[in-house]
């Protein structure tokens, strides 16, 4: 007799990056054409430039540099559907030790108080640990590594990472799209939830994320679909309650980050026919109070090959800083800080609602 | 003119009702915004109530809006479906409880 129960869905094979699929969006100019065209070109929605000009913020200018964000490579063990980096196991762009040495020179002399390592999975760079050890010597106040959690459980060679992070007093920031298995695995791949839980428990066991602990463990939440994140504090409360009750997991803060309409998320928005609605939602949620604090005003983003960008998103759109200084080899903080920030319609993602940055809300 | 009564894109234009009656429109949206703020009930709980009512009043705009709102608030699909059932149960109960009226009338008319 045939079962009346719905058939179990087949396991989804791991996706490839847009780049490996030769998707048209792998060409950054195509993405910029989409962001500048359509509903913006025909006047249905206002350009970001015009919105910030209304409040005297055009051209957008940097404030004091606070954060150096270094992307050590696009290789990742996961292929998340929303990834703005288009990261994955098939991406071979990896920062060399030589470029890392140039970064270290900058780290030693910078006025920034925060160093933020990201990727891909930064741990997959073969020189990652060497780089962390060297960078930690510079005594920078807040040293962040953005770890996707599953990497810690992905392979034996990464099992010691929680101890390694602790040794160098690294501030761990990790992605966790939801406190339920279904939603997490849908966005990030089968099995990601269980591995992430295990990794969080291991970090907790070393003191990470515990109340009052100096070992900082923060989580990043970003929506698994074509909608904006809700209130950061309310979500933090829900995450804390659920993760504690179900798994005894503790963490410090939750950062709610808006998905920006670029790379794989843009591909998803277009394929699912959500692009226009999403852009409307972003523009509708535009909050002038967030404009003054968007992260490009206090951050410099450095790519795996040493180019400088206003933010990680502009890096992925290959929009290099509008400055005489464009590369880490010629880094000069004063010259760099005297620049206009490059903007396009993706920037609405950082000014929606309470604003969004790699450090969560800004308004 | 559109050739159907409901167009999903009209939801975005909801705010425009203020253009034809500024005072009433503004009063309505102020009230509406206030209702859904955190209070004795959390904004999350109110979102689920709104989703259930959206189904009961069969408002396609509201269903779209409060499904999205629920996602934004991290509400799971299981919670959303339970809320819809709560609305559906009240609605069917409201029909069924009139059965008592039918029974009363039947009894009164019967010898």
From TrEMBL, chain B:
Which GO MF terms are attached to this record?
peroxiredoxin activity
Pfam families the record matches? CMD
For this entry, the protein name equals 4-carboxymuconolactone decarboxylase
The Carboxymuconolactone decarboxylase-like domain extends over 23-101
Annotated source species:
Flagellimonas hymeniacidonis
Which SUPFAM superfamilies does the entry mention? AhpD-like
Under NCBIfam families, the record lists: ahpD_dom (TIGR00778), perox_w_seleSAM (TIGR04169)
Q: What is the lineage of its organism?
A: Bacteria, Pseudomonadati, Bacteroidota, Flavobacteriia, Flavobacteriales
